[in-house]
Amino acid sequence: MILAGLVALVLILYRHTAVRNAGMTTEAAAIGTAALGALCHGQPQMAAVLGVTLTAILSSKHFTHGLVKQMRQIEETDTLKFLVIVLIVVPLLPNRALAPFGAIDPYKIGFLVVLVWGISFVGYFLTRILGTQKGPGLTGFLNGLTSSTAVTAAMALGLAVAAGQTVAFLVPA
């Protein structure tokens, strides 16, 4: 109830100052801080982790603004899709074997999809930032520490798409 009142107050203040202040960072930080304070009573460790995350996000505001200004519309859309899959869809997948003989585990399949997509995602941005000479090599090195099979699959798919080939099915060895 108190949190809802705080949110309403912050939104009223934002509307009042919107003419002078184009951003909403202060208001979002105020709501986040109040929510973290409420979370401290029940789950202090989670509140600490989220507090550090919120601080990191707020301190990287200038870097993020510069990065977003350089992003194309398709990159923004793909980033949002990736975040939806990682933060909403995968955690909701059942983490138990399904189908006959327990052959399919939706959570593990979702995790593998996120792993391959994440490697492709990081590789794309590293290549865009560092150029075509350094980006793919650094992507392969960093992600090879995680899963060489997933890196091979992601890079093969990327090379096939870059060459203009249609990829109907990709099975890593």
Brief description of this entry?
By secondary structure, this protein is an all-alpha fold.
Please provide a written account of the structure.
The chain has 173 residues and is mainly alpha-helical. It has two domains: 2-65, no CATH class; 72-162, no CATH class. It has eight helices and no strands. The protein has helices at 2-17, 25-42, 44-59, 61-70, 73-92, 106-130, 135-144, 148-162. Helix 1 (2-17) runs antiparallel to helix 2 (25-42), helix 2 packs antiparallel against helix 3 (44-59) and helix 5 runs antiparallel to helix 6 (106-130). Mean pLDDT is 78; it is low at 169-173.
What structural class do helix, strand and pairing data support?
mainly alpha
The largest sheet is: none
Number of strands: 0
Basic shape? globular
Mean pLDDT: 78
From the alpha-carbon coordinates, what is the Rg to the nearest angstrom?
21 Å
Looking at this protein, list some descriptive labels.
173 residues, mainly alpha, 2 domains, 0% strand, disordered C terminus
